[in-house]
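Review session, final week

We close the course with one last complete record, chosen because it touches almost every idea we covered. It is Serine hydrolase domain-containing protein, a protein from Halobium salinum with 682 residues. Go through it on your own first, then we will talk.
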Amino acid sequence: MPRPSSRRRVLAGTATACTALACGSVPERLGAAHRHDPYPPREGGRRRAQRTTRTADPDGLEAFVDGVVARSFDEHGPDGAAVSVVHDGEVALSKGYGHEYLDPDTPVDPGRSNFRVGSISKVFTWTAAMQLVDRGAVDPHAPAREYLDAVTVPDGEAPVSLAHLATHTPGFVQRTAGNVATDLDGLRPLAETLEAYPPHRFAPPGEVPSYTNYVAALAGQLVADVAGTTFESYVADELFDPLGMDHSTAGQAPDALYPETAAAAADREDWYSNVPPASGVTSTATGMAAFALAHLGGGDRILSSEATAAMHRRWFTPDEALAGMTFGMPAFRRGGTRILRHAGGTRRFASDFLLVPRLGLGVFVSYHGQTLGAAGRAKTDFVDAFLDRYVPVDDADAPTPREGRPTRGDELEGTYRSVQAAENPTYEKLPIALLGSRQVEVRVDGDALRTGSGDDADRWVEVEPLVFRREGGSGTLAFLESGGSVTHLVEAGAPHTALERVPRRGHLDAHGALAAAGGLAALSGAVAWPAGAAWRRLRRLRGGGAGDGGVGDRTGASVDGREGTDGDGPPRTADSPSAPPRLARWTAGSIPVLLAAFVLALGHVVASSGLWRPPSWLPAAFVLPVLAAVATGVTCVYAVRSWREGYWSLPARIHYTLVAAGAVVLCGLLRYWNLLLGPLAP
């Protein structure tokens, strides 16, 4: 029975920290549609009677879109936008708003102004791959390595197929390094990028979905190798030219991206894709309308009707309650209406591409803005408003909730984080967790589950064991289990990415508190000891000595019945020199300095390049946490000696022990997030 799907956003939650545990078992409820030959069958099962939804007349459509775009400009401040809508085999609307990218004096022209479509590029890649399947040149279920000449597939004994790539189920984690260049000098051939940064494999193919750019980039290279050309040339000859998409390109040169503003782009652009099959296509609103028509059976044809139907069918689902993945596009349901959707974003562009085959409806929208985040917020509001208007949810389609407390509610509570970060064994784990992955907090709320908090909170009512529907709207959650234990969470709007259950010891809030406590403890020594030494020197200069018989007294006066101290060490005796305790404090004090320098270096890399193009000096920066770890070990040894040999006073020994404990906590966190020997990790 079909389930409703998400109509607007992925689950609320702040992505922050994650576990290092690997997923060693296969969720029992994963993948009812893992493999079909030669094409997957249509979704089976009993269906509800479908309610016919009609789009508004063309005049009403334009007025509606004008109003939504105007509100998005007022509320979010983007600089330009383009919208195209196709319906019943015709272009119902193609329109531009605001000004062109990098050219405030030129209004957006829907037929000429190029917009970066980001990850919507993947839809072109999967379409190109389906062309080869349609022509009999590629078996989608054969090992992909049989068709690849330029690169090696990191698949081991269980081979990855094109079908796995198209459904994001080869079991690879995301890698960001090398995906993007910040200038033209950083552009690399696709094969070189794929070989330089292969992903880690955390699960066998066809089992756990994990969205990555690598799979689409690899599929693009497969297309190029089979066709004996480059990916850019293939899509130009086989997709753009037949569809009349004259201004569309997968190339990255400024004169191809923005023909009218090439000079300005060369000087000001700071984002170029090194993986064009995943993120490098640029197109116009009119071009995207032609592409949508081709997929909906109108306009020019680039696939046979059989191949088009096959591409839109379900190839994989992590749970039967979800619409799952087509050949390259996530699917979800709004009431009884099935929608295929792929979003895309770059640094200053945000786009969305939706197909509603039953209604013959296709939509493309893209915004750009120099203010980071403005385009994304505007795009989200547009899609929400459009779907609410033209694909409304009928409550009659919603399944009846189960009564009472959610089944196994206590087991479902907890934190779930995208496998992209949770399973990442490289130094990218923390940046991806903080900046590029989803995290969901699940709590039982009476007879429902609650995710998020405040205005972003959602309640989910149970419709069958381990399956929940958003209360008061569309959207479905499915919990996956293995060996009787809940292991993953998948949301209807994102069937290409599973969220892994995070143990309590990997909870972000706990890690944040530990980092703060450990950092303060370690830093207290680096600050307090030099400050104390300076204060003692100042007192001696003013008064000719400390004179109080305390720890800082250099007169040789007795302290607790022992001989005098020098302020930095134990009682001064022949067999207990002052050098070891002084070295102990110098060693402990170096730890926060080394770690602060490392954090600043890594922060600079993330802020300047987002780890897309790691600088040549990055491996050297990872020497700093290694030195800090060594210093921590030495500090722990000195902490033990301070108690055995009587260094300092009792409060000073307690403080030194706390400094050592704080350093141990910090090093433990570094190890957890793969920041010790980071660039050398697999």
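Two points worth writing down before the exam:
The radius of gyration is 30 Å.
Confidence is low (pLDDT under 50) at residues 1-56, 546-577.
Good luck, everyone.
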